[in-house]
Amino acid sequence: MELLVRLILAGVLVAAAGAKLARPRQATAAMATHGFRTPLTRRIAFAFVVAAELALAVGVALGSDDAAYGAALLMALFALTLGGEMLRGKAGEPCGCFGGDSRVGWGAIARNVVLAAAFAAVPSLPESLSLSTDGWLALGLAVALLACAGLALAVLALAREVGMLRLRLGPEAALEIAHEGPEVGGRSALVERFSFEPRNELALAVFTSEGCHVCRALEPAVDSLRREPALAVEVFPEGTESALWEELAIPGAPYAVALDRGGTVGAKGTFNNLAQLESILATAERRGAERRRVEALGV
Q: Of 245, 259, 252, which Cα lies nearest the Cα of 288?
């Protein structure tokens, strides 16, 4: 019984570390929620947490009581940290617990409290347990239900990835027309609508409309870009930003404009999927690099 519980809890630690390693950039960026302000400190925190989870997982699986108590202390520390974030009004922000998609919330706190209690109780479990036939059947049913729950989570994760993949299908480049939207290479006052963080290099303005079905379908794609450390993203709905739409000559939705921190328009265009939206950012980065190279040569 003790071995079974140890293996399950060790698997939880490995799953948490694996989720972080699967999307390291997002998980590292999530460390900013916990007060790690610079890229270096976020990388150090990310590496420490992953290493601690993997090391404790090995120790728990091998039967170390010290590792079990260490894991309990780590889970309690996570719960306290998340509680502090909730009190500071950071509910819903990325926490990095199980990768970049995990969010600060009461559910995450409860999960860590339960795990802390479970790890702390492991050393007190009996090494063996005599069960009746009905007891073994009940245990088998519990394990089967846990396996079904894990399979359901895996299917949901796969469905999400398939959905994101479908958003990437279609033409690779957005439709950029010269007389539509702000002038490429010119400075736009649109940049004043952004609140930049030190890590942000580009600003992405996304123009949407309430009656646009494509806009609603692309909301998860736009939200995924918000987690990019080098990117500041703002959405401007037509219903509440009609004056801005008219000022910038936005032709329709969905439409995007990429600017640098100085307000220079690097790229723009109508897009219908995530790949086209990313092409606007890639074009802005390429043009910005070309402009800096020309300026450096003094041409």
A: 259
